[in-house]
Amino acid sequence: MSEPIEQALSDNGVLRLTLNNPQRRNALSMSMIAALHDAIKQADVSTAVKVIVLGANGPAFSAGHDLKEITAAREQPDKGRAFFSTLMGQCAAMMTDIVTCSKPVIAEVDGIATAAGCQLVASCDLAYASDTSRFATPGVNIGLFCSTPMVALSRNVANKHAMEMLLTGDMFSACDAERIGLINRVTDSESLKTLTHDIASKIAEKSSMTLAIGKAAFYRQKDMDLVQAYAYSAEVMVDNMLTKDGEEGITAFVEKRPPVWRNE
């Protein structure tokens, strides 16, 4: 069997992770979640990786959890409770580690992204999609509210947009997903990889240390009130200014030359 995740690292530090189970619409099975989680954790500590692009093979980015796997678990004496708890816990840990990963993570969507697949897109720092891609949290249609996808969705789009997706279960076009802020930009399928690669490469040119500081601060300050957020971010800014890359960046700007990052 092929690996559930394909990995390819470019010379400039862009790591491409590709979901690779198109026959099952790249469903987030236990094995897929474990493989993706492991890849994210390895990339997080790798000095060679600067940016992560998350894509998929086949016509679906990800159709969410593997419903056949879930159905099979119901045959257990506990009706699947232990399996369901493990599945939800491991999926939540993987999604959380995407957000807390020190490297920027970019979703590249060329196909459908539904339920936990939509959650995966919302968990990434940036997201770009082809104009034929579609997004949904359709659990309500099968008696299963998308409560865990709701966590990522509600942290990325306004309440009423999130509730519309969650309550109706309707498919949203790529243009609608861009309009509500679920994705950054829409392009055609032929241009999608070029777009994400160009964005990833631009980010990869920055100081990895600075990116890590900024990403962590961004998500932390969002849950603070205004005064706390400014106090916290001011401390982060001061510490950043005292780093070697902070000094180098300003010096290079003043001297009108490209900076030489040391990631220190």
From TrEMBL:
<dbReference type="GO" id="GO:0004300">
    <property type="term" value="F:enoyl-CoA hydratase activity"/>
</dbReference>
<dbReference type="InterPro" id="IPR052377">
    <property type="entry name" value="Mitochondrial_ECH-domain"/>
</dbReference>
<comment type="function">
    <text>May play a role in fatty acid biosynthesis and insulin sensitivity.</text>
</comment>
<dbReference type="InterPro" id="IPR029045">
    <property type="entry name" value="ClpP/crotonase-like_dom_sf"/>
</dbReference>
<keyword id="KW-0456">Lyase</keyword>
<dbReference type="InterPro" id="IPR001753">
    <property type="entry name" value="Enoyl-CoA_hydra/iso"/>
</dbReference>
<comment type="similarity">
    <text>Belongs to the enoyl-CoA hydratase/isomerase family.</text>
</comment>
<keyword id="KW-0809">Transit peptide</keyword>
<dbReference type="InterPro" id="IPR014748">
    <property type="entry name" value="Enoyl-CoA_hydra_C"/>
</dbReference>
<dbReference type="Pfam" id="PF00378">
    <property type="entry name" value="ECH_1"/>
</dbReference>
<protein>
    <recommendedName>
        <fullName>Enoyl-CoA hydratase domain-containing protein 3, mitochondrial</fullName>
    </recommendedName>
</protein>
<keyword id="KW-0443">Lipid metabolism</keyword>
<keyword id="KW-0276">Fatty acid metabolism</keyword>
